[in-house]
Amino acid sequence: MAHSDRRLRVLMEPRHGAGYDDILALARATEDAGFDAFFRSDHLLGVDPTDTTYRPTDCWTTLGGLARDTSRVRLGALVGAATFRQPGILATIVASLDEMSGGRAELGLGTGWYEREHAAFGIPFPGTGERFDRLEEQLAIITGLWRESPFSFEGKHYRIDDNRTPPRPVQDPHPPVIVGGSGPKRTPAIAARYASEFNGALGGDLRERYATFHRACEAIGRDPAEPRLSAVLPVACGATRAEAARRGEIIGSDFIRENAAVGTPAQVVDRIGDLADAGADTVYLHIYDIHDLEHIALLGAEVLPHVARPALTAG
């Protein structure tokens, strides 16, 4: 494993959406339990588009609130949709979050995939090839604005004309950038060029996805050991098998259930160990019932100490 520290993070994707007070309660529970970071999904509809109880919230607006209402956990999106926001605006949003949080922001960005969600909110949804093109241009613009001044960019979909007052994040050189997915070609190629962390997504052969990403790094002369490797693990943990099964009932589709860790703390630790064996140094525990704060406390007390390992220090 390239990175000596192993990180365990919480990823929130509520089945029925959430108001800010609920999101804040979960973020504070995450912080109190000792986790490294609190991430949320970037969605305006739930998995079931007919669910009229879903409460949409804007990802980065709520993260801005958490920047002031939490003190330690890192904050980000896994992953934001490049279709939702113009790159210059997104660069400014994330830099603002970084300043508001004292340097705790991370940017996860992907192509966007949920066509019905886009239609429901009047957001254009181009074809797959164009969405990848836009993602690549957005990452070039965002990282360019964060690093350079003045900055200009001329692409097929976006143009930046001599920006002499670009947004400046607190972190140097800029907040970590997370790119990931299961695509065999463009996803690893884009991640190799721009990502601080490659996320292997859910399901399939994680080891092979990491190997493909490493080959993409080598193809452009980047050290494959430099970026982090992460994975997502839907989780329903219980002190007993019955409690775990009860928590597992809220996990959504059959695909997610098949790839979830449903069981006792020891069983969840074993599943995280499998991901580590495949190469992951960072695991996002995917939480669906955001009101079950005892679940977070259990994971922090009985799983986190057996997984997270701090970076080795000199001397």
TrEMBL record:
Pfam families: Bac_luciferase (PF00296). PANTHER family: ALKANESULFONATE MONOOXYGENASE, ALKANESULFONATE MONOOXYGENASE-RELATED. The keyword Iron does not apply. It comes from Amycolatopsis methanolica 239. This is Putative F420-dependent oxidoreductase. Residues 166-176 have a biased composition (Pro residues). The keyword Flavoprotein applies. Keywords: Flavoprotein, FMN, Monooxygenase, Oxidoreductase. Residues 158-183 are annotated as: Disordered. One of its GO terms (molecular function) is alkanesulfonate monooxygenase activity. GO terms for biological process: alkanesulfonate catabolic process. Residues 15-246 form the Luciferase-like domain.
